[in-house]
Amino acid sequence: KKGSHRTFMEKEIFEQPGAAQSALFSRVDSNQRRIRLGGIAEHMDELLQCRRVFLVGCGTSYHAGMMAETVIERLCGYSVTSVLASHFIDCLPHVGPGDMCVFISQSGSTADTIAALEYANKCDALTVGIVNTVGSSIYRQTDCGVHINAGYEASVCSTKAYTCQCVSLLMIALCIHFEQRLRQNQPVSDLYDEIFDGIITLPDALSEALDESKHIHEIAKKISAASSCLVLGRGFSYSVAREGALKIKEVSYIHAEGIAAGELKHGTLALVCDDIPLVFVAPCDRYMPKMQNAVAQCTARRTDKAKDGVVIITDDTAWVSAGFKSVIKTPRVHEMVQPLVSCVPLQLLALYLCEERGFDVDKPRNLAKSVTVE
Ligand code: UD1
Ligand code: M6R
């Protein structure tokens, strides 16, 4: 049931604070400041023996893996690679004992992801599932895993599942870090504390990000006639740019590309002109000076003085003072948790672009919710 919402996509976007809360529910031990994941506890010895991690998924689930890559690497010390399931089965990387292969899937029944899982199982890698659907194929074929508890997701366009996948991956990283330090008789790192605080306050931060919806709708009206748009981010925000571009193209049919801002001068800058809206994911993190430079590079090649076609998603009000009209404000959280908050405005932007262009949000053409053939 859609309740008071016009579409399932809208409903599911607005359900995100509650969905994140469900993912965290009874897994966060606030007194001991630790995460307890029943789904991986029994396999902790094997998890701690791993050296490499592959995060495997398709579409949005792949982007959740991209988002978590650096956090897992920094917190747990593994070498971490996120990889598209289709690419994994095309390239058949050397994996085996000592490797952890994590299969991320809302439905738990995506054909490419299952084929990659079957290969990893055959190679005797430790297989871990991050799924929403209890009893699904990926749940059944993995050695262990975590249910993300997002609740039923009806819209083809995945939103709340993405948020819960990211939360679950961060919880796994925290859980492993805690156990590593416990066994070494060491206290947890500062980064652990920061990310722990970041995820327990995430439901509130998501609610605050949703408060910008009306403003985002106004921005969508201004750029809805575009036939192409670029979403740019760097560092922790690159995966968000990729995910945002996927949302936009999937429901609004505007060609959208998620670009690493550091790559602009290596090709994409040639596309920058007044006709193409630019969306920058530019939170106040360690990459901010470089993002300011990327924005300046692009605006220098545009003539629209009102800068209506330049959208900035940020937790830094300095952009408004700098004369940008389309600034979407997000709450400030730790830079490694920020991608979860920055993604919300892009989901809303995609939704409103679709509505403005008059398409069916919940049934994008040519797509199915669950892709059960390769
Ligand atoms: C259970 C509840 C969860 C609740 C939590 C805390 C269910 C299904 N789970 O989760 O809703 O938030 O208690 O009260 O009711 N597994 C796999 N592969 C996967 C996913 C899971 O093998 O892809 C396995 C796990 O290893 C575990 C079992 O399924 O053995 C259940 O996993 P999960 O639901 O995440 O465990 P809990 O955290 O105990
Ligand atoms: O069920 P899965 O998470 O395995 O699905 C993977 C992709 O098909 C899915 O995320 C797809 O990219 C979404 N429609 C994006 O919104």
From TrEMBL:
Domain of life of the organism encoding this protein: Eukaryota
Record keywords: Aminotransferase, Glutamine amidotransferase, Repeat, Transferase
Gene Ontology molecular function, alphabetical: carbohydrate derivative binding; glutamine-fructose-6-phosphate transaminase (isomerizing) activity
GO BP, sorted A to Z: amino sugar biosynthetic process; fructose 6-phosphate metabolic process; protein N-linked glycosylation; UDP-N-acetylglucosamine metabolic process
Domain SIS: 43-182, 219-364
Top-level EC class: transferase
EC number: 2.6.1.16
Name recorded for this polypeptide: glutamine--fructose-6-phosphate transaminase (isomerizing)
